[in-house]
Amino acid sequence: MRNLRKSCIAGVAAILLATSAMPAMAGIPLLGKKKKEDLPARKLTPAQIALLDKAIAREAEVIKVVQERAPLVETYIQNMKPDPALLQIPASDQHFLGRVDFKKVLSGDTYETEDNHKAKGKLGFFKNSMSYIGGLNKQLHLQFNEVGFVQMILVDAHSFDKNTYKFGFVRNDFLGSVPTMVFDVEPASSKSRGRFFGRIWVERRNGNIVRFNGSFAGSEKDFREFYHFDSWRTNVQENLWLPTSFYVEESDPKSDEHTVKFKAVSNIWGYALKVPTGDAENVDVEVKGADDVSADAQDVSPLGAQRAWVQQAEDNVVTRLFQAGLLDAPSDFDKIMEQIAGNVLAYNNIQVARPIRVRTLLTEPLESLAIGNTIVLSKSLIDTTAVPGNANEQVNNLYAIIAFQVAHIIQGHRLDTKYAFNDRLLFPDTSAFTRIPMHHTDHDNEEAAKKTVELLSPKELNDASAQFGLYLAQLQARSKALTALNEPMIGDSLVKDPKTGVFWLQALVGKGGKLDMNDLKQNAAMPLASFLRFDPWTDQVVQMHPAYEPLLSSRDKMPFEVTPVYLKLSYYKAPTNALDAAAAAAAAAGANATTDAAGNAVAAPPASTGTTAPAAPVAAPSAGAPPNNQ
């Protein structure tokens, strides 16, 4: 969006991820150059054979389920360069987003084999290989090759069986709380182009593959790029594990420091979302437990009518963005964010007509926006500001980024009310997302930036300016390399001028002290995916509670960087509260109370005023904070 990246960049990513379907895994002898060594001739036990039989059967079921879905797929790529102090830092980046119709992808028409590769030539399969995104390829900026993409989420979409592959037992292992058996896998035939070559983790309860990593067999003669990947799945329903994330990395063979040329992560979500049918808006719905009070309804004043019209536009956009899979389903975490927004208002003695709601945008770019009284923060903005510590570093960052959008709300910077007309948002989920100009004007952002400084002036919020100023200083140091991360999809960027790296809240930068990468007590910004996980079935976000990892050198900081995926896996549990149970159906009814990030109970904002009484600052997760004695 915001003119949505140039199509030439999308072509680069197509080649990048398509080529990744054909390499040999680093350290594995290349086919055609050396004689391939077989797996150790250790005989499998009956229990291991039985589990592999289950895995083969379950993988076929996963393929059937995936073919019925059209989830969102997002890929973020960072090209790296060596750095004398930090080993490596981002040199440039690319971001892609699209909705994938797996039924078309898995049709077999474009699946790479030994024979059709010879017929098409070295890179012939790149041509006409972008169709799986449907209508998105012209408007959005994600264009994968079907072969490369499918082979990183499915071990083998067509021939995963004992005739095609050989298996060798490695060990028993736990991934999170899930017990697994680990097997090495390699093609049984010398004609193995496009076949998986690596390792699988099979959970022992039902035989589902929950993780696999490695590469795909190829020859050095035809392919000079050697990528490998690590693909993870989530137990989204009973006995159903679906692809969630995969990490791709290319080593730099010319580097003496063992640096990488690029790192990429892909996330998949929105499996449960359905395309609304044409009859969806014509169905009568009976509201249970509601009394008809239409006779007692009051007349609406002109000001009330104007506010209702603005709210209708807000509700239309929020609902449509959720249906499209871009917004998270309502969750307890959103309530925590609403508590922080309520505190900003309460500490400034400001009342609003309607409560402020907060939702999470499930995409990578750093952005925020206000849709009427709904504040939306991108997942990566929340992740990278989640600095652990004993001084509420994370919460102070959240106060600052939420205050910026609160300033827009209280200054009356409205969403375009044309979205009060439902037809303005009727674009198909599996087609193109047309640009919805929900970002504010430069004039509005300048006004909001000045107001934000005022909102952060109360003593309870005084530390927020310095903490977020340090975050912005870190982002400024890398903004030229991270242009895609700083280009918003639908809302407001942190960056005012991409050429100079100046921020809307530039006034806060000087308050954060001097940025020093060598100071291990200073942690200005976190890597991506540091704080939130998402459920790929319900689209809810949940907080992670990682163990504290002390910084041993400046290389450990990795601000705004892609890092390998490592999920804490667990078996599916049926929802135990109403909010979780209704997430897939977009139930927005919240409870009367929730908890803060430390697990303490906090009151939800009263609906009558939209504000909350000042509360204790929401603490950062204790599991991620350093011990108090340090």
Automatic annotation (TrEMBL):
Which residues are the signal sequence here? 1-26
Domain of life of the organism encoding this protein: Bacteria
Q: Where is this region: Disordered?
A: 595-630
Q: What are the UniProt keywords, alphabetically?
A: Signal
- What is the protein name for this chain? Uncharacterized protein
